[in-house]
Amino acid sequence: MKALRLIQKAEVVVYDRLVSDEIMSMVNQDAELIYVGKKLDHHCVPQDQINQVLVDKAQENKHVVRLKGGDPFIFGRGGEELEKLALESIPYEVVPGITAAAGCTAYAGIPLTHRDHAQSVHFITGHLKKEGMDVDWNGLAKGNTTLVFYMGLKESPNIQAKLMNHGLSGATSVAIIERGTTPRQRVLTGTLDGLADLATQAISPSLIVVGSVTSLHKELNWFDN
Fold first, then answer.
1. CATH 3.30.950.10 in the chain, residues?
2. Is 38 one of the catalytic residues?
3. 193: pLDDT confidence band, cut at 50, 70 and 90?
């Protein structure tokens, strides 16, 4: 409700690709709308420029809302944007959101943790360095956990290979949640050894979920019913 009040009072709204039309329809009709949408391998506006837009508009003494899909502090680069505002001594507040990993899995009937399946959960960016040095693959492959890869479709062959090479069974259940929480949501299920092939059937935005909790989708899928 707080976010709704803020966008209804905003004078400037800087928004991303993943903000739905339904949400944008609630924005103050007199507000200046600035689109800075991003998708894999294509940045409509470079991050540094987004940061500067926020500063410039705030310094015009306007009520600025930076509107993002999901939670701004989970792979949303919200921290970088706030660092710039703090550097310029511009006051701000943060309204947290529901990150895609939580929202999409709930809509897919996939619990992130479950007493019989997973005692922990990891969120990993799919924008992986080619050498793989930025991810503790050995730790991720230990099992008894749920792995959620954001923006991982293009890297699915690498994700599959790294996890299996570090000991995670190819029979581990996986799911790809496409356009989660929207009316066009689709869930693809399979096993880790077929993840790369499964990903070719999906389109962005999608989440990759690895772990035995994904086997509960068939039983707990309420969305399609």
1. 100-220
2. yes
3. very high
